[in-house]
Design brief:
By secondary structure, the chain is an alpha/beta fold. It has helices spanning about 20-30, 40-55, 70-85, 110-130, 155-175, 200-210, 215-225, 235-250; strands at about 10-15, 35-40, 60-65, 90, 140-145, 180-190, 260. Strands 3-2-1-4-5-6-7 form a 7-stranded parallel beta sheet, with helices on both faces. The protein starts with 9 loop residues before the first strand and ends in a 7-residue tail after the last strand. Keywords: Oxidoreductase.
Protein backbone atom coordinates (compact mmCIF):
# COMPACT_ATOMS: atom_id res chain seq x y z
CA UNK A 1 0.00 0.00 0.00
CA UNK A 2 1.29 3.46 -0.90
CA UNK A 3 2.18 5.79 1.92
CA UNK A 4 0.32 8.59 0.14
CA UNK A 5 -3.38 8.83 0.98
CA UNK A 6 -4.48 10.23 -2.39
CA UNK A 7 -1.95 8.89 -4.89
CA UNK A 8 -3.26 8.99 -8.48
CA UNK A 9 -6.47 10.76 -7.39
CA UNK A 10 -7.87 13.78 -9.26
CA UNK A 11 -9.37 16.41 -6.96
CA UNK A 12 -11.40 19.51 -7.77
CA UNK A 13 -11.56 22.17 -5.07
CA UNK A 14 -14.09 24.95 -5.48
CA UNK A 15 -13.00 28.00 -3.53
CA UNK A 16 -9.47 26.68 -3.88
CA UNK A 17 -7.92 30.09 -3.27
CA UNK A 18 -9.62 30.57 0.10
CA UNK A 19 -8.39 29.70 3.57
CA UNK A 20 -9.92 26.23 3.94
CA UNK A 21 -9.84 25.46 0.23
CA UNK A 22 -6.20 26.45 -0.09
CA UNK A 23 -5.09 24.57 3.02
CA UNK A 24 -6.90 21.45 1.83
CA UNK A 25 -5.48 21.74 -1.68
CA UNK A 26 -1.94 21.82 -0.28
CA UNK A 27 -2.54 18.68 1.79
CA UNK A 28 -4.28 16.87 -1.08
CA UNK A 29 -1.31 17.60 -3.33
CA UNK A 30 1.16 16.51 -0.64
CA UNK A 31 -0.74 13.23 -0.42
CA UNK A 32 -0.35 12.59 -4.14
CA UNK A 33 -3.48 14.07 -5.70
CA UNK A 34 -3.53 16.06 -8.90
CA UNK A 35 -5.37 19.19 -7.79
CA UNK A 36 -7.65 21.40 -9.88
CA UNK A 37 -8.34 24.72 -8.19
CA UNK A 38 -11.46 26.65 -9.17
CA UNK A 39 -12.65 30.02 -7.93
CA UNK A 40 -13.45 33.61 -8.82
CA UNK A 41 -10.12 35.24 -7.95
CA UNK A 42 -7.24 34.17 -10.16
CA UNK A 43 -4.56 35.75 -7.97
CA UNK A 44 -5.44 33.69 -4.89
CA UNK A 45 -5.73 30.50 -6.94
CA UNK A 46 -2.30 31.14 -8.44
CA UNK A 47 -0.79 31.71 -4.99
CA UNK A 48 -1.99 28.29 -3.80
CA UNK A 49 -0.84 26.65 -7.03
CA UNK A 50 2.64 28.16 -6.61
CA UNK A 51 2.88 26.75 -3.09
CA UNK A 52 1.88 23.32 -4.35
CA UNK A 53 4.34 23.42 -7.24
CA UNK A 54 7.15 24.58 -4.95
CA UNK A 55 6.51 21.53 -2.78
CA UNK A 56 6.65 19.22 -5.79
CA UNK A 57 2.91 18.79 -6.25
CA UNK A 58 0.60 19.17 -9.23
CA UNK A 59 -2.01 21.93 -9.42
CA UNK A 60 -3.97 23.64 -12.17
CA UNK A 61 -6.20 26.68 -11.83
CA UNK A 62 -9.35 27.97 -13.49
CA UNK A 63 -11.35 31.13 -12.89
CA UNK A 64 -14.90 29.85 -12.39
CA UNK A 65 -17.98 31.38 -10.78
CA UNK A 66 -19.64 28.52 -8.90
CA UNK A 67 -23.04 30.18 -9.26
CA UNK A 68 -22.75 29.92 -13.05
CA UNK A 69 -24.01 26.39 -13.71
CA UNK A 70 -22.94 26.31 -17.34
CA UNK A 71 -19.41 27.46 -16.49
CA UNK A 72 -19.05 24.92 -13.68
CA UNK A 73 -20.24 22.06 -15.89
CA UNK A 74 -17.89 23.13 -18.68
CA UNK A 75 -14.97 23.18 -16.23
CA UNK A 76 -15.86 19.74 -14.83
CA UNK A 77 -15.98 18.27 -18.35
CA UNK A 78 -12.58 19.81 -19.09
CA UNK A 79 -11.04 18.38 -15.91
CA UNK A 80 -12.46 14.91 -16.57
CA UNK A 81 -11.22 15.03 -20.16
CA UNK A 82 -7.72 16.08 -19.11
CA UNK A 83 -7.38 13.79 -16.08
CA UNK A 84 -9.58 10.87 -17.11
CA UNK A 85 -11.90 11.20 -14.12
CA UNK A 86 -12.83 13.28 -11.10
CA UNK A 87 -12.25 11.29 -7.93
CA UNK A 88 -12.69 13.96 -5.24
CA UNK A 89 -14.56 17.24 -5.04
CA UNK A 90 -14.64 19.74 -2.20
CA UNK A 91 -16.91 22.75 -2.11
CA UNK A 92 -15.10 25.29 0.08
CA UNK A 93 -16.88 28.36 -1.29
CA UNK A 94 -17.83 30.99 1.28
CA UNK A 95 -20.74 33.42 1.20
CA UNK A 96 -20.55 36.50 3.43
CA UNK A 97 -23.70 36.78 5.51
CA UNK A 98 -25.20 38.40 8.59
CA UNK A 99 -24.77 37.05 12.11
CA UNK A 100 -26.20 38.84 15.11
CA UNK A 101 -29.34 40.45 13.68
CA UNK A 102 -32.61 39.28 15.23
CA UNK A 103 -35.80 38.59 13.29
CA UNK A 104 -37.36 42.01 13.92
CA UNK A 105 -34.49 43.75 12.15
CA UNK A 106 -33.48 41.04 9.69
CA UNK A 107 -34.41 41.64 6.07
CA UNK A 108 -35.61 38.87 3.81
CA UNK A 109 -32.62 39.51 1.55
CA UNK A 110 -30.13 39.00 4.40
CA UNK A 111 -31.99 35.91 5.61
CA UNK A 112 -31.90 34.34 2.15
CA UNK A 113 -28.34 35.34 1.23
CA UNK A 114 -26.53 32.35 2.82
CA UNK A 115 -29.36 29.92 2.10
CA UNK A 116 -29.46 30.71 -1.60
CA UNK A 117 -25.71 31.25 -2.00
CA UNK A 118 -24.40 28.18 -0.18
CA UNK A 119 -27.04 25.73 -1.36
CA UNK A 120 -27.08 26.95 -4.95
CA UNK A 121 -23.28 26.54 -5.12
CA UNK A 122 -23.46 23.11 -3.51
CA UNK A 123 -26.13 21.91 -5.93
CA UNK A 124 -24.34 23.22 -9.02
CA UNK A 125 -20.92 21.85 -8.12
CA UNK A 126 -22.21 18.46 -6.93
CA UNK A 127 -24.28 17.98 -10.08
CA UNK A 128 -21.31 18.92 -12.28
CA UNK A 129 -18.80 16.51 -10.73
CA UNK A 130 -21.06 13.54 -9.96
CA UNK A 131 -21.43 12.59 -13.63
CA UNK A 132 -17.63 12.16 -13.86
CA UNK A 133 -17.28 10.08 -10.68
CA UNK A 134 -17.76 6.61 -9.38
CA UNK A 135 -18.34 3.28 -11.05
CA UNK A 136 -14.95 1.54 -11.25
CA UNK A 137 -13.17 4.48 -9.53
CA UNK A 138 -14.65 5.42 -6.12
CA UNK A 139 -15.80 9.02 -5.94
CA UNK A 140 -15.98 11.34 -2.93
CA UNK A 141 -17.85 14.63 -2.54
CA UNK A 142 -16.92 16.64 0.56
CA UNK A 143 -19.03 19.52 1.85
CA UNK A 144 -18.55 22.03 4.68
CA UNK A 145 -21.10 23.22 7.22
CA UNK A 146 -21.01 25.05 10.55
CA UNK A 147 -22.17 24.56 14.18
CA UNK A 148 -25.14 26.82 13.40
CA UNK A 149 -26.81 23.71 11.97
CA UNK A 150 -27.41 22.52 15.55
CA UNK A 151 -27.19 25.61 17.75
CA UNK A 152 -30.33 27.13 19.30
CA UNK A 153 -29.33 30.76 19.72
CA UNK A 154 -30.70 34.04 18.43
CA UNK A 155 -29.31 36.10 15.60
CA UNK A 156 -28.21 33.36 13.20
CA UNK A 157 -31.42 32.53 11.35
CA UNK A 158 -30.05 32.57 7.81
CA UNK A 159 -26.70 31.14 8.85
CA UNK A 160 -28.22 28.28 10.85
CA UNK A 161 -30.77 27.34 8.23
CA UNK A 162 -28.13 27.30 5.49
CA UNK A 163 -25.79 25.15 7.61
CA UNK A 164 -28.57 22.67 8.37
CA UNK A 165 -29.49 22.66 4.70
CA UNK A 166 -25.95 21.77 3.68
CA UNK A 167 -25.86 18.86 6.11
CA UNK A 168 -29.25 17.57 4.96
CA UNK A 169 -28.26 17.98 1.30
CA UNK A 170 -25.11 15.94 1.90
CA UNK A 171 -26.94 13.14 3.70
CA UNK A 172 -29.64 12.84 1.03
CA UNK A 173 -27.12 13.06 -1.81
CA UNK A 174 -25.09 10.27 -0.19
CA UNK A 175 -28.09 7.95 -0.38
CA UNK A 176 -28.74 8.89 -4.00
CA UNK A 177 -25.15 8.47 -5.20
CA UNK A 178 -24.12 5.41 -3.18
CA UNK A 179 -25.21 2.91 -5.88
CA UNK A 180 -22.79 4.63 -8.25
CA UNK A 181 -19.85 4.13 -5.84
CA UNK A 182 -19.77 7.77 -4.72
CA UNK A 183 -19.48 8.77 -1.07
CA UNK A 184 -20.69 12.12 0.32
CA UNK A 185 -19.44 13.42 3.67
CA UNK A 186 -20.00 16.76 5.39
CA UNK A 187 -17.29 18.32 7.55
CA UNK A 188 -18.54 20.57 10.34
CA UNK A 189 -15.74 22.66 11.87
CA UNK A 190 -16.20 25.40 14.42
CA UNK A 191 -14.86 28.89 13.71
CA UNK A 192 -11.29 28.30 12.54
CA UNK A 193 -8.77 29.93 14.85
CA UNK A 194 -6.15 30.77 12.21
CA UNK A 195 -8.54 31.56 9.37
CA UNK A 196 -8.43 35.36 9.81
CA UNK A 197 -4.66 35.43 9.33
CA UNK A 198 -5.09 33.35 6.18
CA UNK A 199 -7.40 35.90 4.57
CA UNK A 200 -10.71 34.24 5.39
CA UNK A 201 -13.93 36.22 5.57
CA UNK A 202 -14.06 35.05 9.20
CA UNK A 203 -12.44 38.35 10.17
CA UNK A 204 -15.30 40.39 8.70
CA UNK A 205 -17.92 37.92 9.92
CA UNK A 206 -16.96 38.19 13.59
CA UNK A 207 -15.82 41.82 13.59
CA UNK A 208 -19.15 43.25 14.91
CA UNK A 209 -19.37 40.76 17.80
CA UNK A 210 -15.71 41.25 18.66
CA UNK A 211 -16.05 45.03 18.60
CA UNK A 212 -19.12 44.88 20.85
CA UNK A 213 -17.05 42.91 23.36
CA UNK A 214 -14.13 45.32 23.05
CA UNK A 215 -11.91 42.62 21.56
CA UNK A 216 -10.00 42.02 18.38
CA UNK A 217 -11.36 39.23 16.20
CA UNK A 218 -8.50 36.94 17.24
CA UNK A 219 -9.13 37.69 20.92
CA UNK A 220 -12.83 37.01 20.39
CA UNK A 221 -12.13 33.63 18.79
CA UNK A 222 -9.61 32.52 21.40
CA UNK A 223 -11.23 34.08 24.47
CA UNK A 224 -14.90 34.13 23.50
CA UNK A 225 -15.58 31.02 21.42
CA UNK A 226 -12.81 28.59 22.32
CA UNK A 227 -13.73 28.34 26.05
CA UNK A 228 -17.18 27.07 25.02
CA UNK A 229 -15.70 23.88 23.57
CA UNK A 230 -14.78 20.75 25.52
CA UNK A 231 -11.19 21.01 24.35
CA UNK A 232 -11.08 24.76 25.08
CA UNK A 233 -9.71 25.45 21.61
CA UNK A 234 -10.89 25.92 18.05
CA UNK A 235 -9.85 23.86 15.02
CA UNK A 236 -6.98 24.95 12.80
CA UNK A 237 -6.84 25.01 9.02
CA UNK A 238 -4.30 22.20 9.14
CA UNK A 239 -6.59 19.97 11.20
CA UNK A 240 -9.49 20.49 8.82
CA UNK A 241 -7.31 19.85 5.77
CA UNK A 242 -5.77 16.70 7.22
CA UNK A 243 -9.21 15.34 8.08
CA UNK A 244 -10.47 16.13 4.58
CA UNK A 245 -7.58 14.16 3.07
CA UNK A 246 -8.36 11.15 5.25
CA UNK A 247 -12.08 11.29 4.42
CA UNK A 248 -11.29 11.55 0.70
CA UNK A 249 -9.00 8.53 0.87
CA UNK A 250 -9.80 4.85 0.47
CA UNK A 251 -9.01 4.42 4.16
CA UNK A 252 -12.38 6.02 4.90
CA UNK A 253 -14.04 3.88 2.24
CA UNK A 254 -17.07 2.88 4.33
CA UNK A 255 -17.90 6.42 5.50
CA UNK A 256 -20.76 8.22 3.77
CA UNK A 257 -23.93 10.09 4.60
CA UNK A 258 -22.52 11.48 7.83
CA UNK A 259 -21.28 14.68 9.43
CA UNK A 260 -17.74 14.75 10.79
CA UNK A 261 -17.78 16.92 13.89
CA UNK A 262 -14.68 19.15 14.20
CA UNK A 263 -16.10 21.57 16.75
CA UNK A 264 -13.77 20.57 19.58
CA UNK A 265 -16.77 19.38 21.56
CA UNK A 266 -18.85 22.54 21.20
CA UNK A 267 -21.44 20.15 19.78
CA UNK A 268 -21.65 16.50 20.75
CA UNK A 269 -23.51 15.01 17.78
Amino acid sequence: MSGLLLENKNAVIYGGGGAIGGATARVFAREGARVFLAGRTQATLDAVARDIAAAGGKAETAQVDVLDQQAVEKHAFAVAAAAGSIDIALNAVSVMHDQGTLLADLSLEEFMRPIDGFLRALFITSKAVAQHMGRERPGVILTLSEPGAKLAIGGILGHGVSAAGKETFSRLLAAELAPGNIRVIDIRPHAVVDAPSAGSYTKDLFKPAAAAAGLSVQEFLEGGLAPGTMLKRLPTLSEIAEMAAFLASDRAGTMTGTVVNLTGGALVD
